[in-house]
Amino acid sequence: MSDAPIVVEALVKRFAENAKPALDGAQFRVRAGHSACLLGPNGAGKTTLIRILTGALAPTSGHALLFGARSGDPRWETHRRRVGVVPQLPGMYRDLTAREYLALVQGVYGRGDVAESAKRLGFTRKLLAQKMAELSGGWQRRLTLAAALLPDPELIVLDEPTVGLDPVAARDVLALLREAMKGRTTLLCTHNLAEAEQLCDMVVVLREGRVILDESLTSLRTKAASRVTLGCNEGAEKLLAFVHAEAPNLRTESLRWSDAVVTAPTIVGEHVKLSMHHPRELLPVLLGAMVSHGLSVYECTAGAPTLEDLFIAAVGEGATTP
Amino acid sequence: MSALKTLLRKEALQLMRSRSALATATLLPALLLMVAPLGQMAALLRADHKGWETVLPPNFRAPPGLVGIERDASVLLRFLMGCLVAMGGLVVPAVAASYTMVAERESRTLELLAALPVRIRDVLGAKLAVIFALAVAVTTAMLTLDVVVMLRLHLATVPFVLSLFVLLLCALLYSTASALLMSLLARDFRTANQLGGALLGPTTVIAVVVLAYGPPGALAVLVLALIFLVAAGIALYVALRVVTFERLLR
């Protein structure tokens, strides 16, 4: 397993001797073919971690291994060439064209096809001839993505690839990312939980430099409570009163309602919402009770928890900005 | 090697496109290495006396570097040539470096380079190599013109003019190495210019003192060249020990 594309072991990074560590024993791994999203509140150490992984920063202690090699290892430079990186909001050269920048990337990696990479990302000849700083925000982001994909890397590391883009440009970049990530190991650092949910199968949550969650989304969803939405024609207040009065007595052969409910029911708009485990077993019982009580039920759904739910559950309500 | 070549190509392309860097690299040395020396030579030609015995105070005692000035005004020209060559060599790489290195840092394009599999030493090495090459090309061409005129007018000997070339090369080396240190300390143009000025002032004073009070003729120029060479070595050693992407990305 030492040749996993990314292995982070007891990683500590201090920018000054007595300063609070930006990374404080962070530990996780991303196996080949997996897409991990790196989440965490502002200042959690995400960008520091990415910079250490790419060799731009040196760790204070611990290791960040790329394909089993640490920075300074003779093999590291070879393995570093297997990685494409999209940095967070980099500056753009005023005196280099998009084509010249891609040619620079090709020269540094010693492989790749500028024309093909540019075409894949939708660059026309006119756009390629434009100075980098004169491209729009969306095209600048496409350019960094084209540069990261140009050497056909096995691992791509993306630091906030859609931050600062308007919704249309962000959607375009997201679609390109989805395509680019196919068959590649990916580490995606993002503020956008919906984006992470769409693109990744693994979640690593950092908080104050420590990894507080490192799990697959599937496993998290299995463990996490489902979001239940209830609606009836008699109104949300009547429905809430019913749920409070009757639901605690509901049970199946092996499950009790009171053991399954995670958050108490509350009124949200015209609905009553709650989160609970085992909705497949308990909701039919609840639905039966609602109908026999004379309520005209028009909605009774259980949705999988979103990444936002999982993130808040892991990090806490106070830190909702990953 | 291919990464370094690519970086060299990039730096050369950018430097050739940077009007301010090119203007700095040609205008300042043109003033120091062409206008001032050729003006001095023209003044010497027009003068109707060889020495300055009439304008110097009666009890004037020239320092070792200016011995004979009362009889031969070309002594002053040779003294000034040493000072001007030293300043010309010092100013070009330092200013050009602040345009290219600090610009990269200030505009956050360094992030793009940090995302590539390149070493920071290669990035800075490529920048300095291109700046050094430009500075050598421009200043050597200008000094060659001065030297040809000086030799034609018998204002200097061959060993002296050769020592001027050695001085120029060592001043350029020192300036390039100190530019590398500056790139680690300065985050913006203003700081870079202040640091450049702070470095240039004392260095010029040292140059004048060595040329005036050092051994006479070509030897003083060579002593000054040696001082620059040692300082270049120290600056380069310190810079290479502390240069990291981390320092530059801060």
Description:
Chain A is α/β, with parallel strands linked by helices and 322 residues long. In chain A, 36% of the residues lie in helices and 26% in strands. In chain A, α3 packs parallel to α6 and α6 runs parallel beside α7. The mean pLDDT of chain A is 88. With 250 residues, chain B is an all-alpha fold. Classes of the chains: A alpha/beta (322), B mainly alpha (250).
Layout of strands and helices, then pairs:
The complex is a heterodimer of chains A (322) and B (250).
Chain A: E1 6-13, E2 23-30, E3 35-39, H1 46-53, E4 61-66, E5 69-70, H2 76-80, E6 83-86, H3 98-109, H4 114-120, H5 125-128, H6 137-149, E7 155-159, H7 167-181, E8 185-189, H8 193-199, E9 202-207, E10 210-216, H9 217-223, E11 226-232, H10 236-246, H11 257-260, E12 261-268, E13 271-276, H12 279-292, E14 297-303, H13 307-315
Parallel strand pairs in A: 3-8, 3-9, 6-7, 7-8
Antiparallel strand pairs in A: 1-2, 1-4, 4-5, 9-10, 11-13, 11-14, 12-13
Chain B: H1 2-17, H2 19-46, H3 74-106, H4 110-114, H5 120-152, H6 158-185, H7 189-213, H8 218-242, H9 245-249
Helix pairs in contact in B: 1-5, 2-3, 2-5, 3-5, 3-6, 3-7, 5-6, 6-7, 6-8, 7-8
Task: Give a quick summary of the entry.
The complex is a heterodimer of chains A (322) and B (250). With 322 residues, chain A is α/β, with parallel strands linked by helices. Chain A is built from 13 helices and 14 strands.
Give the count of structural domains of chain B: 1
Shape of chain B: elongated
> How far apart are the first and last residues' alpha carbons of chain A, in Å?
29 Å
Number of helices of chain A: 13
Key terms:
heterodimer; A: 322 residues; alpha/beta; 6-stranded mixed β-sheet; 4-stranded antiparallel β-sheet; 13 helices; 14 strands; 36% helix; 26% strand; elongated; B: 250 residues; mainly alpha; 9 helices; 79% helix; 0% strand
